[in-house]
Fold:
Amino acid sequence: MKRATSWLRHAINPLVIQVATVAVAGIAVAYIAIFTSGIVERSSRQAADESNAALLATEIRAQVDSVALLRLDDASNGTGSRVTIQSAVAAHDHLAGAETAATKLHALVGSDVTLQILGATGEAGDGLDEYFAEQSPESFATLQARLDSLRALTAHEAPQLTADAQGHQDTLNQATSVARVASIIAATVAATLIVATTLITGRRLRHALLAAQEEKARLLATTVAMQRRNDQFAALYQVGSEVGESLNMRYVIDTTVREARKLVGADLVAVRRVVDGALQVAGTSHGDEEDVSGLKTVALGSGVTGRVAKRGKPIRIDSGGEQQMSDAERVRGIQSGIVVPLIVGARVVGTLGCWSRQPNKFDADDERILEMMATQVATALMSADTHERSERDAHMDTLTALPNRRQLSEDLDGMWLHASTTEQPHAIAMVDIDHFKRFNDEFGHKVGDITLQKVAEVLRSSIRDTDRLYRFGGEEFLIVFANVGSSMGLQLAERARQAVERTPLTGETLQPVGPVTISIGVALFPDHGRDFSALIDVADRAMYASKEAGRNRVTLAGHDLTELAAA
Structure:
């Protein structure tokens, strides 16, 4: 009994009753709101669909009437006139618009009548095509009948669709009234739900704030990425301008590796050129941690770089780069990289490789940037190579493969400056092949050319690495012995003379052509002067002195020291 009384006291507690009332009211309001919102949503959607359907039916009829207004029957009344292109295009456009509207109408309503309307528009289009093909009274009658049928269908369907739309609009109005009443009830109950609403709102605000912070971070990351891309494109333009304006191979390569490294943030960049069917290292840019001493020539098809050159397509590696490299391209610690081909026309002339110690360092944007850079670099490399080849050919004697007189003229200033600055003595030796005209006359110019090539080869092998050998012209050669006095200069000249004398020479058919000897004249810097051009003339006169003394000897300017030199 006491337990039942206690339960009743709690049951009639005002607070309990208030809470229960709020709960019941909340449930009722929620049910009303859900119910009326469902009615409103359905009625609104149906009213909109029916209104759109009515408008589409009206549009179909208007398009059909527009075809009639074009007076297409003028071409079938026997006057000989033809339908103009403008009228034909307009008629087709109107019926195409009608067919589009009919398709939308059937999609909205999906009734048998709308299906008939859709079919009638297609038949009207076919009738129009037949009329344009024949332009006869019969084909026009057929077209007119199909248009009338379509007009009748739309005339029947449009009022019905309008009425249905009005009915749904009435339902919508009723649902709106119910919703208004429910809103009044909800406003009454809202006061009791302020605390709960505040809590929910606060939680949602916190969630919104977190989402806004995340979005801000994403926008910041996007901004940073866009700025990086802008910087890359600016750098790419700068690289293109620099390498495109230079014809110096070394400058083009150094600029490429330096700027490519900055462009994508690589730890190591290497440019390789295709030389004799293999990829030779042309230039690198790297940090202190990268050991590039092991980089060697890579065969086409070998390793990452070789595959890129052979296939002509870039390769991007996200991780494990060191393991995928061949021995000739491996650098310890490399994780990711991009290698793009340098292509001119359809020919791969080299590769550009960018590597990093970080995995996933490069993305697709970096790959596209490097491909654009590679196009500019490849063209610049080919231009520089062509220019340097031309310069080399202009300064090289094609017969003997020795620097020619033009190269000598350009080298003289440097020689004079070095000799004058260091005060090191030099010896200039003028060399002339004895009786060379006889070789040409007796054995022909072909044998004369062979003789010049052989003498050049012997002279080149008899001098030191620090000395310079030029073809001066005709059968004359010039040797510059660096950092030697008179005694050493004469000894080196004598060694060259003896080397030629000891070398057997043969003609075109390997027949002996007799011993070949040379006469040499030697002038000294600074003993005989400080002007290298003038010293060449002094050496030339000393060479003629050797000729006059019997040939096959070495003569120091102003003295006949053959015996001394031989000793």
Q: What stands out?
A: The chain has 16 helices and eleven strands. Confidence is low (pLDDT under 50) at residues 560-567.
